[in-house]
Amino acid sequence: MDSDYGIARELSDLQKLRSHYQPELPPCLQGTTVRVHFGDATAAADPTGAHTISRSFPLTYGQPLAHFLRSTAKVPDAQIITEHAAVRVGVVFCGRQSPGGHNVIWGLHEALKVHNPKSVLLGFLGGSDGLFAQKTLEVTDEVLATYKNQGGYDLLGRTKDQIRTIEQVNAALNACTALKLDALVIIGGVTSNTDAAQLAETFAERKCPTKVVGIPVTLNGDLRNQFVETNVGFDTICKVNSQLISNVCTDALSAEKYYYFIRLMGRKASHVALECTLQSHPNMVILAEEVAASKLTIFDITNQICDAVQARAEQDKYHGVILLPEGLIESFPEVFALLQEIHALLRQGVSADNISAQLSPWASALFEFLPPFIRKQLLLHPESDDSAQLSQIETEKLLAHLVEAEMNKRTKEGTYKGKKFNAICHFFGYQARGSLPSKFDCDYAYVLGHIGYHIIAAGLNGYMATLTNLKNPVNKWRCAAAPITAMMTVKRYGRGHGASILGKPALHPATVDLKGKSYELLRQNSTKFLMDDVYRNPGPLQYDGPGADAKAVTLCVEDQDYMGRIKLLQEHLDKVRSIVKPGCSQDVLKAALSAMASVTEILSVMSAASGGSTPF
Amino acid sequence: MDSDYGIARELSDLQKLRSHYQPELPPCLQGTTVRVHFGDATAAADPTGAHTISRSFPLTYGQPLAHFLRSTAKVPDAQIITEHAAVRVGVVFCGRQSPGGHNVIWGLHEALKVHNPKSVLLGFLGGSDGLFAQKTLEVTDEVLATYKNQGGYDLLGRTKDQIRTIEQVNAALNACTALKLDALVIIGGVTSNTDAAQLAETFAERKCPTKVVGIPVTLNGDLRNQFVETNVGFDTICKVNSQLISNVCTDALSAEKYYYFIRLMGRKASHVALECTLQSHPNMVILAEEVAASKLTIFDITNQICDAVQARAEQDKYHGVILLPEGLIESFPEVFALLQEIHALLRQGVSADNISAQLSPWASALFEFLPPFIRKQLLLHPESDDSAQLSQIETEKLLAHLVEAEMNKRTKEGTYKGKKFNAICHFFGYQARGSLPSKFDCDYAYVLGHIGYHIIAAGLNGYMATLTNLKNPVNKWRCAAAPITAMMTVKRYGRGHGASILGKPALHPATVDLKGKSYELLRQNSTKFLMDDVYRNPGPLQYDGPGADAKAVTLCVEDQDYMGRIKLLQEHLDKVRSIVKPGCSQDVLKAALSAMASVTEILSVMSAASGGSTPF
């Protein structure tokens, strides 16, 4: 099977065209000279978790941010890295395939070779299993030729998602040592980057010279924090899904007799559902975060949908499109509690057939109320992260079923006098994942690959490649690297949505911020979306002409550019320092002192107050 | 609700660009002068049915073909239509929405107005129900502005598919009379065009001056015959589905652990499945026509798939993609027989719960063997055309279930030693239907709309607009009109696959020709597809650059251009006549006589022999 990896393959006309597409580099990465400027030491966003994180990562916590600047940049203490020794780098795909993953490898390879043609890039075959087994393929121009700007992870393949157990970590360490790797680049999401951070710490502790670098690639878009604005793959996934959702909207509007319930990807967070809603304007979206925050039960949501159906029927509209994320089912408090009981019994070895009888009275009542197909799906063994098998649970069918029952009841009672409610259900889970990546994802992944190299050249360990200011054109993108530990949080609230191990620092999936601008945009438009059928059809993913350069709505509306703003603050501080030099007037000093005292006091109060919650 | 139709709406950037796209016209339709040349009187392809058809359609059967030629064309007996009186035309969407439908209306409107600005085009709102109720919207440039080159049928909407009962036909006649329509254009597939032919005959019989014109628009691509090469919508549907199938193939190849079973549209015919296979090269496709022709049972197919899984496992491959059309379930002889029994009992009013007990012993044995979810789906009431509710029957899940059971059995018996078989199922039924139409469908529909007008201008009744030589560029397309009755056949084989009313002439869905070149191409490549993972990714539908002008593979490989060849034959005959004029030598006459006698004898024998089967 190994011989299948990396072989040239026949491409369609469009794939060929795309394979010749050359992404642009931001100015700072052009040429062979790059300046690195180290910022202040980083801290975790959550100050109360910082101590736990620093204890778990004594060697890699608190490292400074690294900004990559153009060689002509006038930053006094920036270093220019001039010597580029030949390096040996390993790269591995971890977790689910995400469109654009191949371009990370391409960018990394390109940067390696530009700076020293003797450098070697080894791809691990078959994901982390290939890493443990030391199965590699040398990545060359020839190998890359038919994979540039293409979807999937099939250049190298992938298997398991974990590098976590003692055996796995040891196997990774042995592989890096045996292959004399200067660095290991891990391409993945929240879990894989947590593993990368742990690996970096362990390698440092065991004096293994291999540096570990993480790249944020995950189609759920939930690896988001102050340093990371979006993930490779998210843009493509949302565009392809929006294309399909719009097709369904057009269909709904043409036939005028069906409600379509569409379940989208998004286990711990509803980013895909939110973005697709903002792109295609379906009638409704039910975000797991909203449900969890309002503690709505599945019956509340059923009633909300029924009220919407009824309001539309009064306008003689009998069609509609409703989106929901696959994680929704776990966000209903009563269903979550039921799932916890079921999983506990399964872990005790109780067979699925006998579970119903051993549930608590209320859980049993809920369970028996649900239709048989859902009961069967809820009884599936939980996944390795303790969440239910969300891709297997047909929440869209359950909701359609409950809404139909309620509408029939209302008809019987005479409170609803419209036509019969008809539903059609869809799960758009896998259709988009193997797509040709969008231009944005091609560019983003390629540049991240380059940054990956510069992290290695700067000798950094436990960093993630980051790009900010992404809503602007490529030449305005800011290239940087942030310690992965600075993105960690510590969960303290017990078995919440997600049930992670208590107290262990980790990257956690960022959920949709209900105070953010994207959600606000949704709220402002939700009545119009619901009643007026203002469906928007972005059409199929284009590579030329209008729409080809479109970016995710949620990326564009948020005030992101955290890195840019951090730099701006530093400039202010430097300016104050340069104005208030010894020798300045008494008045200037007095004004400065008073103003700065007030600023520091405000910030101290705010930092203490925000300590309890994770701001991202 | 009516006020929602035809209103301007907000378009995305890509939709806006597309709304400005101007399809090309073939040379013969450019300018305001078009020549019409009438060919020989048409006959149905099936000579034994011809008598029945001519008896049912005394006024509209046997009319000649009409070719539309450029005004400068040197065809002696072609007429130039110079007078273009103002006409009032009605247009109605019948049946399922198909990408490109809006462009038929645009082309028709454009042609009407170019030839006489006083002509009026009335769109019926909400399909045939709108026709019966005489609910219209005047189609204007303004109304069309945001619907040009856009998907869906939402400009006018659609409802029921039938204009067939005495009440419906009378309502249509009343509408045409009341609205003083010179013509009624029906946009639809096999069923709707059969209705159009019937309506034309009835109108002629009742001296209603309204001419009826049909336009071949159906995404299944099964309105195919000697005059019609493909249907509006088929190209888009196959491209969008191939995009999704390729994504799944890439996914399969990246994860390497799942078999994907994908059910596609195609009730009576597997054209979509065949075309998508030729575009995206999945590992297997199971065509309903193959299964029906070979009388394979569902267990035969299960074993075939298991053998393929096993052969791939021997090459260490545990992934794959298998396509099947939704009509497959009815093509298994034993399942079809079971469905017949179920439907007969349902028609007798037996409730679904009691059916199992009343089945014949063998049908009952099969029924009880099937998994519960399929049993429930088989018990659904049949559709109006007596076929099962194919969109509701999850044949892909049934096959995945049976394959899994068989693989487990083989593992237990020790005949299969590979890894566990894992399946993921998809139904790609509705995702593509509302898509922005491909360039080909935009062009094809627009030109058909124009031809619709020229049929009306020539005063023809019961004709369908046709375009042939479609695999060549637009300037080579041949424009013509053929009497719908010439495309009819009469079913004589009793309750076959499709169970139409015996003896009544109708357009029947054309199934995949197992002797045709497209199927041959599939056969030649099937082993390579099965074993070598030569997945091809045509990518998302493009409007610019490579792939934007791609046409369906099945359109390009078949020797179609029937109209071109008919014309060529006529040229040969004319040439013989001009060479063998009175006064030619004895030798020439002798040679001509002998050759022609032999040709006529061969053709007589062939026509008689082919009488029993429908060649298309």
From TrEMBL, chains A, B:
<keyword id="KW-0460">Magnesium</keyword>
<dbReference type="Pfam" id="PF00365">
    <property type="entry name" value="PFK"/>
</dbReference>
<dbReference type="GO" id="GO:0005737">
    <property type="term" value="C:cytoplasm"/>
</dbReference>
<dbReference type="GO" id="GO:0009749">
    <property type="term" value="P:response to glucose"/>
</dbReference>
<keyword id="KW-0324">Glycolysis</keyword>
<comment type="similarity">
    <text>Belongs to the phosphofructokinase type A (PFKA) family. PPi-dependent PFK group II subfamily. Clade 'Long' sub-subfamily.</text>
</comment>
<keyword id="KW-0963">Cytoplasm</keyword>
<keyword id="KW-0418">Kinase</keyword>
<dbReference type="GO" id="GO:0047334">
    <property type="term" value="F:diphosphate-fructose-6-phosphate 1-phosphotransferase activity"/>
</dbReference>
<dbReference type="InterPro" id="IPR011183">
    <property type="entry name" value="PfpB_PPi_PFK"/>
</dbReference>
<dbReference type="GO" id="GO:0005524">
    <property type="term" value="F:ATP binding"/>
</dbReference>
<comment type="function">
    <text>Regulatory subunit of pyrophosphate--fructose 6-phosphate 1-phosphotransferase.</text>
</comment>
<dbReference type="GO" id="GO:0015979">
    <property type="term" value="P:photosynthesis"/>
</dbReference>
<keyword id="KW-0479">Metal-binding</keyword>
<dbReference type="GO" id="GO:0046872">
    <property type="term" value="F:metal ion binding"/>
</dbReference>
<feature type="domain" description="Phosphofructokinase">
    <location>
        <begin position="88"/>
        <end position="447"/>
    </location>
</feature>
<dbReference type="InterPro" id="IPR000023">
    <property type="entry name" value="Phosphofructokinase_dom"/>
</dbReference>
<comment type="subunit">
    <text>Tetramer of two alpha (regulatory) and two beta (catalytic) chains.</text>
</comment>
<protein>
    <recommendedName>
        <fullName>Pyrophosphate--fructose 6-phosphate 1-phosphotransferase subunit alpha</fullName>
    </recommendedName>
</protein>
<dbReference type="InterPro" id="IPR035966">
    <property type="entry name" value="PKF_sf"/>
</dbReference>
<dbReference type="GO" id="GO:0003872">
    <property type="term" value="F:6-phosphofructokinase activity"/>
</dbReference>
<keyword id="KW-0808">Transferase</keyword>
<comment type="pathway">
    <text>Carbohydrate degradation; glycolysis; D-glyceraldehyde 3-phosphate and glycerone phosphate from D-glucose: step 3/4.</text>
</comment>
<keyword id="KW-0021">Allosteric enzyme</keyword>
